[in-house]
Amino acid sequence: MTILPTYPEAALWLLLGTAVISLLAKLRLTWLLLALFLVCAVFLSRISIIGAGTVAIGIALAFSLSPHIQEKFKTLHRFPFRVLLNIGLLAWCSAMALHIAPGFNNLLVLDAVTSGPESAPFTLFFNLDKPLITFALVLAFPAILDMRLSDRISSVSFHAPSISLQQWSILAVSFGSIVVLAFTSPIIRPELSFPQWWWLFAFNNLLFTCTAEEAIFRGYLQSLLVRITNNWVGIGLASIIFGAAHFPGGPSIMLFAGLAGLLYGLVYHFTRRLIAAIGMHFAVNMMHLVIFTYPVAIG
Fold first, then answer.
1. Which of 39, 52, 181, 245 has the most CB atoms within 10 Å of its CB?
2. Are strands 107-113 and 122-126 parallel, antiparallel or unpaired?
3. CA 111 to each of CA 2, 35, 96, 197: distance values in angstroms, whole numbers, following the listed order
4. How sure is the predictor about 68, in pLDDT bands with cuts at 50, 70 and 90?
5. Half-sphere exposure of 91 toward its Cβ, with a 13 Å CA cutoff?
């Protein structure tokens, strides 16, 4: 069953989506839009007072790690403090991503729907908690939007990135391996479908799901692991962690997600732009929805 959000809640989700777009485009209205969204969410009882406190904790941790604060307060710049702040922020992001942080009343929009006759039932929520991860991570580490810049970003270029022929070949092989696995997987079958609720799926998946997951797995974790190890080990470890995060789907889904994570990690590494990884993530998810059984086949 499809449950369409009605006014004023529909406007609430449009406001959050606009804030995400503004964040990715690095517009000055981003934080004003986010503040307005949070006030409206509390007013509409989608975020409780406890939830508002949870958001405040995450924003405070992110703000403490932001470049300007680290420059002004040398104590926070010391290694032990940075480690503790990073652990705290990562724990907060995990709680938000797993929907275990208190005080959030997420909106059910698809209840046990199917994308096709061979697909298993699928339920979708418009989540308030998970999208906030993106804002916190960009506040803490603004360069994750564009890793070509080492400090706070003043603008984001939308010119096509320069990728070598060798890099295109690597991306093609990585994408091809995902397609082959999808066609040979025992739990995913070919099934052309275009469900009526595709636009709800696309809106949520692009602006809330893919953006948040790429911010944490590529923008944060991959960047951190690359600095600790090297490019290829960091990309590989981030992909393994991304695959492991899909453990509720079983081994086949974990393998599928791990290979997809490798593709997204390579896109991020080659282009240095988070928006490119988000776009590839969204494209793979839409391919899964339209060409294959989603999320898995019946039985």
1. 245
2. antiparallel
3. 6, 30, 22, 11
4. confident
5. 9
- C-alpha torsion 27→139→209→16, nearest 10: -50
Distance CA 198, CA 25 (A): 25
Reported as type and span, the H/E element at residue 36 is helix 30-43
Burial (0-12, 13-18, 19+ Cβ within 10 Å), 36: middle
Strands (E), the chain: 107-113, 122-126
DSSP H or E stretch at residue 172: helix 165-184
Cα torsion 102, 249, 282, 199: sign? negative
Residue corresponding to tokens 């991503």: 97
DSSP H or E run through 87: helix 79-97
CA angle 226, 74, 272 (to 5 degrees): 25
Q: Mind listing the pLDDT tens digit for each residue in 2-41? A: 888 888 889 999 999 999 999 999 888 999 999 999 999 9
3-state secondary structure of 6: coil
* Residue 234 CA to its chain's centroid (Å): 18
Half-sphere exposure of 190 (CA within 13 A, CB side): 4
Whole-structure pTM value = 0.93
**Residues in CB range of 26: below 8 A, 6 or more apart:** 145, 153, 154, 155, 156
